[in-house]
Design a protein that fits this description.
By secondary structure, the protein is α/β, with parallel strands linked by helices. Helix content is about 35%, strand content about 25%. It is globular, with a radius of gyration of 25 Å.
Length: about 525
Amino acid sequence: MAKFIFITGGVVSSLGKGIAAASLGLLLKRRGYKVLNQKFDPYLNIDPGTMNPYQHGEVFVTDDGAETDLDLGHYERFTDENLSQNSNTTAGSVYLSVLNKEREGGFHGGTVQVIPNVTDEIKRRILLPAAETNADVIITEIGGTVGDIESLPFIEAIRQLKHDAGFENCAYIHLSLLPYIKKAGALKSKPTQHSVKELQGLGIQPDIIMLRSEVPVDAAAKEKIALYCNVSSSAIIQNLNAKSIYEIPLMMEEEGLGSAVCRALSLEDPPPDLGDWRTMVRQLYCPEKKTVVALVGKYTDLRDAYHSVAEALLHAGICNRSEVVIDWVDAETLQSEADVEQRLARADGIIVPGGFGDRGVEGMILAARFARERKVPYFGVCLGMQILVVEYARQVLGLSGAHSTEMNAQTPYPVIALMPDQNGAILGGTLRLGKYECALKPDSLAAAAYRAETVWERHRHRYEFNNAFRADFERHGLRLTGINPERDLVEVVEVPEHPWMLGVQFHPEFKSRPNRAHPLFREFVGAALKAKI
């Protein structure tokens, strides 16, 4: 039977439970265990797909097309395991499932209650991956903070699971803030004590307490927390700030997190194989070069909105032994060619990532023109590819007013248009989602990067390259180098006689790994480094 680890948070949000869960997944996998991570969010949205990026950050997409929390990106990048829709659950989806079952008569006229009906559905979803995979350990992060009203059914469900699955098969980790009061020169344990007391009041005794702190936690502080929280001092793990999130698993191993978990679950504790991870972190910290990439987007005030793109650029930098400095450019500030000249002059490369709506689009088009005319390496991702196509249509094909029908439904030249089966669709879960096949032309930049002629990449979009203009673009030199063979959709475009100008309709950033950069990001950063020289 699989072992279960549940990670809860206390005192405040944004402590880094996702990084802690991902780090633990890596440490257990490198000990030889098959690991699967999950995220359970207490909000009532069905999924994050329709949520504003400024509220939630990016939406991470899995191979099977689930729109999920960005923490699943951390899980995949650290453990190198592709996750599925079963790895992210929200309170909204749980309640929807329970209510649909009630409407269908599934409860045979019985009263539907939070306990046991809602908690049973939560437990079913926690156990689902154990039934569908051969995972040795399932790590479940509970979103929110202990004490939140909306998270109570989840806390009760994981309490019950220890009874259902066996006490020896479950472990609880509580991540709490240990504030440092600078004036007093002291760490204060009272918030953690109260948080653990709250958790104990809900029937859960943590096996391990992780202390999020800005300064080192001394032995006396650990002993005090161990005494008041009824936990062994060897199970008190400090979680300090790090220069990079990729160093955190190494710090957690030094602190003994992996061993503490193995003890709690009665697992063998072989030494983890972290050699390549240590090498990757050393390369990250000791770059030989530096390159500046301008990220031209519409959500730049909240950088989590482009989290996977930023991480993929970082990975590409590691691979190229270069520090990648991201210059965050708000597309709305690019109102004229003079603005673009001034703002993008220092960029060695330009990337335009995904997004929805018309805000800032004209600024992105100006950035694409600047990149094309000045021979600056350009990488367009999803919307960024569509921007490349619109700019090329206007300036090279001479189609004044060319646009996407998402931005201008009355455009005389709809070079980007709605897919026929999307007309009248509701917003939630109706995009083209998940992985699709893409056939690459052998002599293309894309094929050279992938070293393959067929790839599978993840999508999240509703509008497509309009095939009605396909011949016009090809006649004017634009190379359509990636095609979805199933529906004959254009997936990759390249600008000829340019060092590196490429757009993709999919989201390659979701498949990038710190110790295995995505081929397109690797080559883009490599091209930016060459342009710098």
